[in-house]
Amino acid sequence: MKFKYGKFIPSLADEIDMEELVSALSEMLLSSGFQSPYGDGSVDGDRTMQALHDAILDALLNGGLLPDDVLEKLFGEQAETAKQQLDELVQQIMDRLQEAGYITPSPELDAERERRAQAGGGQGEDEPGQARFEVTDKALDFLGYRALRDLLGSIGHASAGRHDTRDMATGVDASGAPKPYEFGDTLNLDASATVLNAVTRAHQQGRGGSGHVDIGYEDLMVAQGEYQSSCATVIMLDCSHSMILYGEDRFTPAKQVAMALSQLIRTQYPGDTLHVVLFHDSAEEIPLRELGRVRVGPYYTNTREGLKMARRILERQRKDMRQIIMITDGKPSAITQPDGRIYKNAFGLDPFVIRETFGEVSACAKAGILINTFMLARDYDLVAFVRRVAAMCRGKAYFTTPRSLGQYVLMDYLDKKTRTIH
Known about the structure:
Elements (H helix, E strand, L loop, with lengths): L17 H7 L1 H4 L19 H14 L5 H8 L3 H21 L3 E3 L4 H10 L13 E3 L1 H18 L8 E7 L6 E5 L10 H14 L16 E9 L1 E8 L12 H18 L4 E7 L3 E4 L16 H13 L5 E8 L5 E3 L5 E3 L6 H16 L3 E6 L4 H13 L4 E3 L5 H10 L8
Parallel strand pairs: 6-7, 6-9, 9-12, 12-13
Antiparallel strand pairs: 1-2, 3-5, 4-5, 7-8, 10-11
């Protein structure tokens, strides 16, 4: 069979770094519903191909993804020609994102297609640009990695090891003074100390001039490394309505921090565990792989139910450290009662809600669980509440903003490297 080869004609899409593009689109891909005109976390409009088209176009024109000379060449032509070329370029990029596995078309059920066909007078397909897409696990994993890299870079950490304590153990990393070998120790021999012991013993026995050294059991010396503790962590994410209100999206940065922490634990702390609990009117645990797809939920903040679920998860973990990282922007305003009904009061600090919440904080303290709270608001009553939570569990209270949240969370987690744990 004969093959006919054609001349390779490069396109502008070949000059686009897909990883840089995905990073530039991170806010759109991790959207939590803030762009909804009602601020209710609805999914309409922000997972369509048209929304993706507009986001890519904005990244190309304002994100520095295209060289200046290319932009000058494009806009040096007629307006209609430039617009057509940009539309073609964006479509090529969207196709490449699908080929690279960062996005995938949203599956349509037959029943839904039939309903749309009947409603649209026989048109079963989506309107142009209204076809939906889904963000893949590959894209979410990459965004978690980039978030971790950016956050670690901003706080000056080039790398991270495991959590160190002042206890010594015979490990692979030799950072302590050698000690005599005892049964059960890891046989991480310190060669120089072992040979020195054998030579010293030979001289003491008058065999120093023979030129032959016998190494016995009593001469063995092993290198000590710092004992490395393990940590079980539950991230409690407030996904109540207030996290996307008041002109600021607080939930998307919180998701990015949780994704970065997940990436850190998976790559640098393999002995640690991480779980995620969302709390709103009630509370629920979600798989880590679904974290990037989570959106804001119902209106109220059931902090007690979130703490209870986190405590039950951590009580099953046999780790040296167990901690809860709670990220919230509001006061507790709901309680799940014994009969399953949810008592709600969004006005002020309800004494009943606060009392029950502190009861769960006390249960966490008795279980030896540390609670570190990252508060995204600074109301006087909230400050007092958070500080009391920190005092009861010997934790910390951080009052931060969505922009600096990631640095505070990772700095606190990495601080376990040098903190003494007993």
